[in-house]
Amino acid sequence: MYSHDLIIVGAGLAGMRAAVEAVKAGVNVAVISKVHPLRSHSCAAQGGINAAINPKDSWESHAYDTVKGSDFIGDEDAIELMCKEAGNAVLEMDRMGTPFSRLEDGLIAQRPFGAASFDRTCYAADRTGQVLLHTLWEQLVKAGVQVYEECQILKISEVDGQVAGVVAYDIKKGEVFGIQAKVTLLCTGGYGRVFLTSTNATASTGDGMALAYRAGATLADMEFVQFHPTGLRYSGILVTEGARGEGGYLINDEGDRFMTKYAPNKLELASRDVVARAEQTEILEGRGRDGAIFLDLRHLGAKKINERLPQVRQLARDLEGVDPVYTPIPVRPTAHYSMGGIRTDKYGATILPGLWAAGESACVSVHGANRLGGNSLLDTIVFGYIAGRELGDKLGGMDMPTLPESEVQGVKDQISELMDRPDKGVRPASIRERLGEAMNSYVSVFRHPDNIQKASDLIPTLRQDLTTMHLDDKSKVFNVDLLRALEMQNLVDLAETIIAGAMNRTESRGAHSRVDFPDRDDENWRKHTITKWDNDAQTTAFSYEAVRTVGKDAYKPAVRSY
Ligand SMILES: Cc1cc2nc3c(=O)[nH]c(=O)nc-3n(C[C@H](O)[C@H](O)[C@H](O)COP(=O)(O)OP(=O)(O)OC[C@H]3O[C@@H](n4cnc5c(N)ncnc54)[C@H](O)[C@@H]3O)c2cc1C
Fold first, then answer.
1. Mean pLDDT across the stretch 166-178?
2. What are phi and psi of 253, to 5 degrees?
3. Pocket of ligand 1 contains residue 163 by CB under 6 Å
4. CA-CA distance, 540 to 543, in Å (whole number)?
5. Which pLDDT score, from 0 to 100, does residue 265 have?
6. Sheet holding 527-534, edge to edge
7. Atom of ligand 1 nearest to the CA of 168
8. Which of 69, 258, 266, 451 could lock 562 by a disulfide, CB 3.0 to 4.6 Å apart?
9. How many angstroms is it from 43 CA to the middle of ligand 1?
């Protein structure tokens, strides 16, 4: 059994930023991650991070864009906090050594991004997440923070209403161990892999959210899933919004620049939900090709594409067989970002004592029903920093809880039972495929109640299959079959909350578009969906929470046009 004041689960940008801050207060911090920290999903972020650092811009304008982008359901106090902190957050990363792209005069370069009223997205070519992650990793190593690499947490241990730490599985050794901590901070990323096609890494299985939910924390707004307008047609791999920020057009199979019809002012740089719906409409009405429309970069020329979008060119060549210098790239809306997550206050605390969350796994609600591009990296850096700072201050005065050995034994038994099952049930991959396909087909860009019901009807079958699924691989070291099986329970739990949330919300708001309720209904639905696992009834319990407003007229719900 290991013991730390603070265990941070997840070594993406949120987790590492929190660790770098907390360690400054002299507390004993450790980080645990199921993949090597530098392979955390944050590494894939391409386009950039928002901050009003140009004197002609303002945090107020950024906050307004974010409130509007959220379709007026983001919590305004948290949004203001994020936008006020953004400048410092980015400049602090710059001081730590992040190699941002620069203007001629040496200032950090900024590009236009969707639904933003100013060019405020700071970037490092199309590798922004990677350079931020590497910068924080250097700081972590320098500070000597202990990192449990390639160890997957399987349980959040809650004892008498207090979280006492986590139980984890060392993927390299096949061993189960416990980490006792005064506070467990979850920075485990999103749940994109609930969908079969996603821009997300295979590790984005929402583990932290599902385990927190099982331990008694609440989840918020799970029905709001962002579909990115430019996932590659076959693989779903992302083409950054930066490509449109640099001037890329969207065209249909007839060569029409169709966004002139759907968002005459902002065109391709309208909010993501608006662009995704426009694309899907074009495809459904027969103006796509093989389920895709096209991102046209040809007019940018080879020089600009090579300089600003080198990774995009490479991905298009490797995965779609087209060179964007000469040929438009086939793209389609693809599951991308989890607006929902573990409900926290402005600092990262959940309703469970000893459990905090930050980054994509959390719902502090700065994104509401639709996240703006460039605001997620910001969310990780700002709220990671805030959680680290707050915990650094608080941990000294807290007592260390006891994580009972029985908690560790319970997880060992769970794994043994799974490994020892006869080769009769279905394989985990089959459950994943059926779930992912149903989510793709029935709970995506446009949601029809009959389709949502079809997805809902599948859940009991999948739950039954979870109890009998068997593993082909019985080995101890790097047993991927086992890991995928353990993640399946999380995916099914989260899918259920997304499906039920989508069925309950009888309006269209942001990324949640109900064909039978096409309008936003502020009177009845300007509120957060709160989901809690009811252990006695073995089901999901719903409640609703008012949006936190700050009383500014500018933030009052209005028609959202771009
Ligand atoms: C392709 C792509 C491009 C993007 N580009 C941008 C962009 O340009 N700008 C922007 O603002 N946003 C962008 N986003 C969104 C943004 O990258 C993510 O929201 C953000 O990086 C999430 O960071 P995180 O720290 O919350 O989690 P992640 O980076 O996902 O890290 C999660 C961590 O948790 C660990 N973990 C998970 N489960 C467990 C477990 N059971 N046990 C132990 N460890 C666990 C993982 O190993 C990992 O270290 C992009 C997203 C995608 C998919």
1. 97
2. -70, -15
3. no
4. 10
5. 93
6. 362-363, 341-343, 219-220, 527-534, 539-546
7. 42
8. 266
9. 7
- Average pLDDT (368-373) is 96
* Section 75-104 average pLDDT: 97
DSSP string spanning 309-362?
Answer: -HHHHHHIIIIIS--TTTSPEEEEEEEEEE--EEE--TTSB-SSTTEEE-GGGE
* pLDDT score at 345: 96
Band of pLDDT at residue 535, cut at 50, 70 and 90: confident
pLDDT at 424 over 90: no
Share of the chain above pLDDT 90, in %: 95
Q: What residues form DSSP beta bridges with 8?
A: 31, 185
- Minimum CA distance residue for ligand 1 atom 44: 33
12-26 confidence digits (pLDDT tens): 999 999 999 999 999
Residues forming the active site = 272
374 lines ligand 1 (CB under 6 A): yes
Task: Quote the ligand 1 centre to 269 CA distance (angstroms).
Answer: 23
Question: Which of 13, 20, 31, 42, when mutated, tests ligand 1's pocket best, judged by the most ligand atoms within 8 Å of its CB?
Answer: 42
* Confidence (pTM): 0.96
Cα-flanking dihedrals φ and ψ of residue 34, to 5°?
-80, -20
Residues 286-320: pLDDT tens digits?
999 999 999 999 999 999 999 999 999 999 999 99
DSSP string, 2-39: EEEEEEEE--SHHHHHHHHHHHHTT--EEEEESS-GGG
Residue 144 in tokens: 């000597």
Token pair listed for 218? 């609440």
Structure tokens at 18: 């929190």
Q: For Cα atoms 272, 275, 277, give the angle at the middle one, nearest 5 degrees.
A: 105
Residue 502 belongs to what H/E stretch? helix 480-504
Q: Is the CB of 198 under 6 A from ligand 1?
A: no
d(CA 81, CA 489): 35
Of 12, 91, 22, nearest to 389 (Cα)? 22
Bridge partners of 337, per DSSP, are 226
The mean-pLDDT minimum among 169-183, 238-252, 491-505 falls in 238-252
Residues 6+ apart with CB under 8 A from 356: 183, 184, 185, 186, 344, 347, 348, 349, 350, 387, 391
- Per-residue model confidence as pLDDT tens digits over 99-156: 999 999 999 999 999 899 999 999 998 899 999 999 999 999 999 999 999 999 999 9
Res 482: pLDDT:
96
CB-based contact 370:273 (threshold 8 Å) = yes
CB atoms closer than 10 angstroms to residue 532: 17
N residues, the chain: 562
CA distance linking residue 103 with residue 110, whole number of Å: 9
Quote the tokens at residue 498. 């997304």
CB atoms within 10 A of CB 264: 11
Ligand 1 in contact with 12 (CB < 6 A)?
yes
Is residue 184 within 6 Å of ligand 1 at its C-beta?
no
Would you call 198 helix, strand, or coil by DSSP?
A: strand
* Average pLDDT along the chain: 96
The three-class DSSP label of residue 29 is strand
Give DSSP secondary structure letters for 58-82: -HHHHHHHHHHHTTS-S-HHHHHHH
pLDDT above 90 (res 561): no
